[in-house]
Amino acid sequence: MIKRILPLVFLSVGGLAMAAESSAPRYFSVRSGALVAAKAQLAAGDAILVPALQALQRGAAEALQVPPPSVTEKTRLAPSGDVHDYASTAPYFWPDPSKPDGLPYLAHDGKVNPESRTAASDLRRIETMSRTVETLALAYYFTGKEAYAAHAARCLRVWFLEPATSMNPHLEYGQGVPGKSSGRNIGVIEGGNLPSAAEAAGLLLGSEAWTAKEDDALKAWMARYLEWLLTSQFGREEAAMPQNHGTLYDVQVMRLALLLGRTELAREVAEAAKARRVAVQIEPDGRQPMELKRTKAFSSFTPGPPARIDRSCAPLWLIFSRHD
Question: Rounded to two decimals, what is the model's pTM?
Answer without folding.
Answer: 0.85
